[in-house]
């Protein structure tokens, strides 16, 4: 994988030019794209032409992959659907514009599942091509894992950033709700859709988030202070594989040995119940966000998405309103829960990427944290007995994104040296 921070440091010292970094990405794409299928559109020549002109901006001309849910003025934007084949937006999504302002160079559009749903795309897991990369930000996670780009944009409505990062063994950051703009991103659920980022390490992801957002999120490569960590298993703990359970417990043990204060807490019943409200809110809104596609192109929707939307049509406004009330109560409860801890440690996914390409995996360990709007970081570096990546998830307090990144960086570091 390509470390964004190391590449920037080499550009700043003159050891590399931004165009030379594009060539590193182009070589990796030439080697692996045919078998992985991370991209739906590429323009390496344009990246070559633009890179050096961005050398003095924060991202230093680094190539960036952009999930094909974000509108781009100079690339097709198809949202993973044949309905939008060849679609050319007139303007960039806000996030794409921010990436360009920061000196990132778009090298291509990455594969998304159909409209951010559970309908699998064509991307394969770089660690083992017989396994999926997760979804819906399939191509972004795979492109970073295969060294094709140092930074990629994704989005999460349920678990679409954290889970594919875990499956592909990369770092990922789903910030607090609305910290990054979704304007110009195809909507699936306006109450839940959140922009996310992928990179090789937690320090890389913090650097990218800081450069793009203009916020004080960069943590560099210095060691972070030992955080207060609460190990949370949730009622879904039995759904985690034995390897995943062991990975989370090992992460807690290693962190404690390195000086972190680790406690174990149970979620209040209110929060456990709130996880179920996520699906009601998401699907009710998706049925409305995709109203035109349903009404005019129903036969061109994939079977998984079509079935999901048919069920969504049965969700009443009263049920939706009740789910929203429960979500608001849960957010207040979450604030109280986090008073005596910095972050929560929990699985990023039920296990490693499953065998076969017919599924994007389950958002079992993601939906609640997305509903709460909390910052989440996938910490890579662990593996199951078959050698597939496992990710552990660090969940922070709402709007305390830097603290979550620092805790995740601490954990990433101690796991790497243990």
Give a description of the structure.
The chain has helices at residues 4-13, 18-36, 44-51, 94-101, 138-145, 162-168, 202-213, 242-257, 269-289, 291-297, 303-312, 317-337, 367-372, 401-417, and strands at 39-42, 63-67, 105-110, 151-156, 171-174, 194-199, 228-231, 261-264, 343-347, 376-383, 389-396. It is an alpha/beta fold and 418 residues long. An eleven-stranded mixed sheet has the order 1-3-2-4-6-5-10-11-9-7-8, sandwiched between helices. Helix 5 (138-145) runs parallel beside helix 6 (162-168) and helix 9 packs across helix 12. The longest helix is centred in the last third of the chain and has 21 residues, at 269-289. The chain is globular. The two termini are 21 Å apart. The mean pLDDT is 97.
Mean pLDDT: 97
Can you count the helices?
Answer: 14
Terminus-to-terminus distance = 21 Å
Strand order, biggest sheet?
1-3-2-4-6-5-10-11-9-7-8
Tell me the total number of β-strands: 11
Enumerate the spans where pLDDT stays under 50 for 5 or more consecutive residues: none
Name the structural class.
alpha/beta
Quick one: biggest sheet?
11 strands, mixed
Helix/strand order, N-terminal first: HHEHEHEHEHEEHEHEHHHHEHEEH
Quaternary structure annotation: single chain
Give the fraction of residues assigned to helices: 40-55%
Supply Rg.
20 Å
Kindly estimate the percentage of residues that lie in beta strands according to DSSP. Answer: 5-15%
Give the overall shape, derived from the CA principal axes: globular
């Amino acid at each position: 994988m390509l470390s964004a921070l190391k590449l920037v440091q080499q550009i700043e010292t003159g050891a590399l030019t931004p165009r030379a970094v594009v060539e590193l990405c182009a070589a990796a794409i030439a080697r692996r794209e045919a078998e992985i299928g991370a991209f739906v559109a590429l323009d390496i020549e344009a990246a070559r032409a633009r890179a050096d002109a961005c050398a003095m901006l924060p991202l230093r001309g680094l190539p960036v992959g952009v999930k094909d849910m974000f509108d781009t003025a100079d690339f097709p934007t198809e949202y993973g659907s044949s309905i939008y084949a060849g679609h050319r937006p007139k303007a960039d999504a806000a996030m794409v514009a921010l990436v360009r302002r920061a000196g990132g160079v778009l090298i291509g559009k990455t594969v998304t599942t159909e409209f951010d749903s559970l309908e699998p795309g064509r991307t394969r897991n770089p660690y083992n091509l017989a396994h999926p990369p997760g979804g819906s930000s399939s191509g972004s996670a795979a492109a970073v894992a295969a060294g094709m780009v140092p930074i990629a944009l994704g989005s999460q409505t349920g678990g679409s950033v954290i889970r594919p990062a875990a499956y592909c063994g990369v770092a990922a950051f789903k910030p607090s709700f609305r910290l990054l703009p979704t304007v110009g991103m195809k909507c699936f659920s306006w109450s839940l859709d959140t922009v996310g980022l992928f990179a090789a390490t937690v320090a890389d992801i913090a650097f990218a988030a800081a450069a793009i957002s203009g916020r004080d999120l960069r943590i560099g490569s210095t060691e972070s202070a030992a955080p207060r960590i609460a190990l949370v298993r949730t009622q879904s703990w039995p759904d985690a594989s034995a390897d995943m359970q062991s990975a989370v417990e090992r992460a807690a043990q290693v962190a404690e040995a390195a000086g972190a204060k680790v406690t174990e807490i149970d979620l209040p019943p209110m929060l456990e119940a709130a996880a179920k409200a996520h699906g009601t809110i998401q699907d009710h809104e998706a049925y409305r966000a995709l109203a035109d596609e349903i009404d005019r192109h129903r036969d061109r929707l994939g079977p998984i998405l079509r079935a999901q939307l048919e069920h969504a049509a049965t969700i009443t406004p009263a049920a939706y309103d009740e789910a929203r009330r429960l979500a608001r109560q849960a957010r207040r409860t979450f604030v109280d829960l986090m008073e005596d801890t910095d972050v929560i440690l929990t699985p990023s996914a039920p296990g490693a990427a499953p065998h076969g390409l017919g599924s994007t995996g389950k958002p079992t360990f993601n939906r609640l944290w997305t509903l709460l709007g909390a910052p989440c970081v996938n910490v890579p570096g662990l593996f199951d007995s078959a050698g597939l990546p496992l990710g552990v998830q660090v969940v922070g307090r709402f709007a305390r994104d830097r603290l979550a990144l620092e805790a995740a960086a601490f954990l990433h570091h101690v796991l790497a040296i243990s």
